[in-house]
């Protein structure tokens, strides 16, 4: 990489953004940090809430989080008011907040969901889990 004479200009909001990202990563402790980071910054770029836990929620001691009202609230904010969501997109959101895949599959089976999911129906079934 060639060196240029141009000085590097760091936006003033970058340090705060990186600090918030680091704190969220510590709280969430995602299995796939790179994918989670991509989802985090993509959500920020779209003006959406990034996939993070509330401060009050304790991080599970195991690698998998438990489904809590706080995590359901995060998922609901990620869906951003849509009534229908694609299964692949929801599965990725589920994975990003480190929830068990078998629980996702169980809710999918009980709701008999296919490629397109009625979000409020899924949310209600997930709440009952």
From TrEMBL:
Keywords (A to Z) from UniProt: Cell projection, Cilium, Flagellum
Organism superkingdom: Eukaryota
Entry keyword annotation includes Zinc: no
Cellular component terms (Gene Ontology): motile cilium
Electron transport is among the record's keywords: no
Gene3D superfamilies for the chain: cAMP-dependent protein kinase regulatory subunit, dimerization-anchoring domain
Protein's cellular compartments: Cell projection, Cilium, Flagellum
Family listed: Belongs to the ropporin family.
Protein name as it appears in the record: Rhophilin associated tail protein 1
Source taxonomy: Eukaryota, Metazoa, Chordata, Craniata, Vertebrata
């Amino acid at each position: 990489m060639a060196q240029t004479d141009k000085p590097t200009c760091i936006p003033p909001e970058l340090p705060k953004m990186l600090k918030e990202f680091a704190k969220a990563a510590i709280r969430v402790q995602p299995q796939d940090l790179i994918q989670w980071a991509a989802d985090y910054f993509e959500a920020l770029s779209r003006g959406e809430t990034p996939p993070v836990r509330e401060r009050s929620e304790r991080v599970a001691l195991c690698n998998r989080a438990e489904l809590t009202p706080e995590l359901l609230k995060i998922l609901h904010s990620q869906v951003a008011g849509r009534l229908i969501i694609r299964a692949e997109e929801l599965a990725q959101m589920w994975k990003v907040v480190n929830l068990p895949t078998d629980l996702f599959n169980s809710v999918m089976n009980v709701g008999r969901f296919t490629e397109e999911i009625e979000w409020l129906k899924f949310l209600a079934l997930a709440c009952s889990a």
